[in-house]
Write a sequence for this structure.
């Protein structure tokens, strides 16, 4: 009898601790307003420009779509198929990193300046960020280049290992996994496959502030937050007792020691998404996680079958949106409840774009752009 009671209590404890797969319980519902084909599979997330138009990068081609789903123009970059995520200038330019270059494109599609450096033989996607002094920072395995928004060269760091602007030695075999920047510093996750990777913080003059070893990893993501914080999600090369997926928070002006870390046995963590109400969201292991930004403690998680995309947050409703491998768009409440799901024409691997008014823009891997309205429940008088 005692064994039966213990077994029963153990089952109760298991179900109390483990979150069950989400059931669709909400009264909100999605409505597709329009869909526009022909964008191709995106190579970076859909972005909205300062003019309210939508910019979609697929390989080396950028397509621009208006709020009614009409493609206004399309242009091919000069950087080959290694074009990275574009950076927007509020004064009227788009900067696209290509194969060892930065290309300026005006918001109307006309070409601006090109900044080209010595050919870089890396197979990794070229990365461009903003950072201190409103400069553009081109991150290449061979060097870090700082350029102003008029295309003028400022400085470069050839020797990543020392951050020495006077060195002319190029270190071979380096690879860049992620980069970001804020007003305080430029951040890059850099390393070699067999030697491990580190997160480095550099000043606006290219001097290293600090570095933090991340070990042998296969992928990583960086996002900047308020108060000079930077957050990283890191995927280990292998999972074992000492190697796990991790989320880190750092102080830009600190010493490189994490403010906090949160570890879990997954190797597919997406980039994190920060919310204004104090939570950090990411997807891993077919689960959506919510951590407290202050200390990294887990607020909740929810099992969401086939979930793969980086989450998005609507700050007004606090609803979280993400995509799945089996063609669904999911809407989750701020407490982790699945409110609705919508089946689309293809895999949703890219982060949905949320705009005010409850509207979503989602591009599937089939290249279809959807405009979707998240409809609230009818009022008693409706």
């Amino acid at each position: 009898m005692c064994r039966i009671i213990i077994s029963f209590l153990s089952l109760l404890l298991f179900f109390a601790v483990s979150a069950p797969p989400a059931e669709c319980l909400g009264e909100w519902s999605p409505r597709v307003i329009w869909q526009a084909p022909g964008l191709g599979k995106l190579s970076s997330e859909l972005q909205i420009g300062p003019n309210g138009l939508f910019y979609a990068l697929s390989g080396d081609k950028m397509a621009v779509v208006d709020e009614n789903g009409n493609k206004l123009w399309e242009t091919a970059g000069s950087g080959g198929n290694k074009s990275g995520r574009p950076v927007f200038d509020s004064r009227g330019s788009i900067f696209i990193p290509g194969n060892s270059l930065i290309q300026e494109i005006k918001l109307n599609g006309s070409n601006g300046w090109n900044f080209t450096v010595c050919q870089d033989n890396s197979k990794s996607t070229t990365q461009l960020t903003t950072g201190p002094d409103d400069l553009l920072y081109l991150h290449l395995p061979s060097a870090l280049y700082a350029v102003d928004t008029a295309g003028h060269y400022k400085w470069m760091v050839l020797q990543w290992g020392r951050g020495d602007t006077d060195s002319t030695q190029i270190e071979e075999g380096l690879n860049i996994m992620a980069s970001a920047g804020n007003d305080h510093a430029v951040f890059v996750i850099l390393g070699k496959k067999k030697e491990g990777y580190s997160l480095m913080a550099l000043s606006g003059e290219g001097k290293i502030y600090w570095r933090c070893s991340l070990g042998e990893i296969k992928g990583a993501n960086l996002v900047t937050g308020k108060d000079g914080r930077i957050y990283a999600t890191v995927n280990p090369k292998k999972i074992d007792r000492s190697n796990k997926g991790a989320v880190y928070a750092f102080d830009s002006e600190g010493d490189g020691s994490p403010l906090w870390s949160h570890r879990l046995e997954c190797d597919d963590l997406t980039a994190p998404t920060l919310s204004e109400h104090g939570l950090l969201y990411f997807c891993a292991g077919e689960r959506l996680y919510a951590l407290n930004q202050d200390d990294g403690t887990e607020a909740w998680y929810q099992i969401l079958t086939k979930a793969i995309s980086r989450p998005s947050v609507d700050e007004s409703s606090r609803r979280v949106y993400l995509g799945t491998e089996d063609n669904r768009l999911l809407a989750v409440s701020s407490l982790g409840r699945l409110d609705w799901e919508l089946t689309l024409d293809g895999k949703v691997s890219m982060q949905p774009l949320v705009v005010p008014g409850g509207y979503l823009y989602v591009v599937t891997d089939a290249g279809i752009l959807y405009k979707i309205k998240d409809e609230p429940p009818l009022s008693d008088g409706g």
Q: What stands out?
A: Confidence is low (pLDDT under 50) at residues 1-20.
